[in-house]
Write a structure and sequence with these properties.
InterPro entries: LysR-type_TF_proteobact-type (IPR058163), LysR_HTH_N (IPR000847), WH-like_DNA-bd_sf (IPR036388), WH_DNA-bd_sf (IPR036390)
Structural class: mainly alpha
CATH topology of one domain: Arc Repressor Mutant, subunit A
Radius of gyration: 16 Å
Organism: Pseudomonas fildesensis
Number of strands: 2
Shape: globular
Family: Belongs to the LysR transcriptional regulatory family.
Pfam family, one: HTH_1
CATH architecture of one domain: Orthogonal Bundle
Strand content: 5-15%
CATH class of one domain: Mainly Alpha
GO molecular function: DNA-binding transcription factor activity; sequence-specific DNA binding
Order of helices and strands: HHHEEHH
């Protein structure tokens, strides 16, 4: 599964405080949300969410997820969110949204000279 998609799912579950609510928000099934979170937890090697019967909450593992890039999902949506809410921008082509593509970043290690 695509790591960016996993991060989107994680952010939705954390914000909605539940798998079913996140699934509704993402227009997918609760089992697919569960699989995405399980894959992310397996890859990172820690539990990200404390599950309860009707809700879930982020745990210390969420910090690890942020370090691994979960915060990137929010950064990508915030620059336009305010403009969508105020009506300055309008979302079009809902059904034609492309899946996210991987981004590769090259940087030099060490301090800047």
């Amino acid at each position: 599964m695509d790591r960016f998609h996993e991060m989107q799912v994680f952010v939705a579950v954390a914000e909605e405080e539940g798998f079913a609510a996140a699934a509704r928000r993402l227009n997918t099934s609760p089992p697919s949300v569960t699989r995405a979170i399980a894959a992310m937890e397996q890859r990172i090697g820690t539990q990200l969410l404390a599950r309860a019967r009707l809700s879930c909450a982020t745990v210390q593992g969420a910090i690890n997820a942020a370090v691994h890039g979960a915060g990137l999902v929010r950064c990508l949506s915030y620059p336009v969110h305010e403009h969508l809410v105020t009506g300055q921008l309008r979302r079009v082509l809902h059904a034609d949204e492309l899946p996210p593509v991987p981004v590769h970043v090259v940087y030099r290690e060490g301090r800047n000279s």
